Amino acid sequence: MTIRLDPTIETTADVFSAAHAPVLTIDPGDTLIVRSLDASGYLEPQQHPGQEQHKLRPQSRGHCLTGPIAVRGARPGQRLALRLHALRPDPWGWTVAAALDTPVSRRLGLVEGPPSWLLWQLDADARTGRESRGFVRDLAPFLGVMGVAPAEPGEHSTIAPRAASGGNIDCRELVAGSTLYLPVAVPDALLYLGDGHAAQGDGEVGGTAIECAMTTELTVDLVDDRPLTQIHAETPAGLITFGFDADLNLAAGDALDAMVGWLALRYEVDRATALALASTAVDLRITQIANQTWGVHALLPADGLR
């Protein structure tokens, strides 16, 4: 079955919570066509940089996410498999840098100055974006936020990604053709989707990508037999594991630990041998430094080991 879900005030949220009533209930194996607004929930494009346009949620506390979507029968200990078929950005988007006092903006000496805004016209068919000053960027659309409700009671910010439930992962490799595996933390999972990015570099170094509304077609499956309990992905670029922590050393260690475990199972070798193989083929990349909890992903390229 294919089901469409569009963003309205009733079908969106700006925090994660296990107490949220689902806006839609699906069965494992159903296909969804989900439209999400950009991270800020803008309803119309800016006409000049920094213009405050109307938002769906004017007092939003976090990303404007579509959901939560209940997956009937999902239970803690299982994994959701999000099989991404197509992602199509809306015709416009924006980028802003140095808008907040962050470790990055302080390090670069940009806290006192005005922020810089880029306004983009996006051509989904040609897969290009043109900025108002003439810069052109190839598009590779993905969702920055794909996550389930955390098990802990109360409301939880959408800003920081969580190892136990996903969320604001911001990995630019999660394009169409990818499958993201998320641990289920609460009954029926309660899945949230949004934060469309038409294009982003590893790191999302300025704090935003090309932020845009997105229409995503995906199939949501429920699986028990994955080799890893952690968040991981199969993408056109290769196999990916993740680490999230305010300390990049710990984030890198978590991503590598998960990848070594995956290689050991995949190739039926001990962990020391898996680490040796990883040292020849696996790339450690900075996923994002834009959030309070930074991310690292380990990538085994599709042609990395045969």
Which stretches are poorly predicted, pLDDT < 50 over at least 5 residues?
A: none
CATH homolog superfamily of the largest domain: Acetamidase/Formamidase-like domains
Please report which band the strand proportion falls in: under 5%, 5-15%, 15-25%, 25-35%, 35-45% or over 45%: 35-45%
Terminal Cα separation, in Å? Answer: 37 Å
How many discrete structural domains? 2
Architecture (CATH level 2) name of the largest domain: Sandwich
Instruction: Count every beta strand, where a strand is a DSSP E run of 2 or more residues.
Output: 18
Run of helices and strands? EEEEEEHEEEEEEEEEEHHEE
Q: Looking at the structure, what is the overall shape?
A: globular
Number of helices: 3
Average pLDDT: 97
Radius of gyration: 19 Å
CATH topological fold name of the largest domain = Jelly Rolls
Main sheet characteristics: 12 strands, mixed
Oligomerization state:
single chain
- The CATH class name of the largest domain reads Mainly Beta
Helix content: 10-25%
Structural class by sheet pairing and helices:
mainly beta
Task: Give your account of this protein's structure.
With 306 residues, this protein is mainly beta. The protein has two domains: 2-223, Jelly Rolls, CATH 2.60.120; 232-301, Endonuclease I-creI (Roll), CATH 3.10.28.20. 12% of the residues lie in helices and 38% in strands. It contains three helices and 18 strands. It has helices at 103-107, 248-267, 271-281; strands at residues 2-5, 12-13, 24-26, 31-36, 65-71, 79-97, 116-123, 128-131, 136-138, 142-148, 166-168, 179-183, 191-197, 211-223, 232-235, 238-245, 283-288, 294-301. The strands form two sheets. Strands 1, 4, 6, 7, 8, 9, 12, 14, 15, 16, 17 and 18 form a twelve-stranded mixed beta sheet that branches. It is globular, with a radius of gyration of 19 Å. The protein starts with a strand and ends in a 5-residue tail after the last strand. The model has no long low-confidence stretch (mean pLDDT 97).
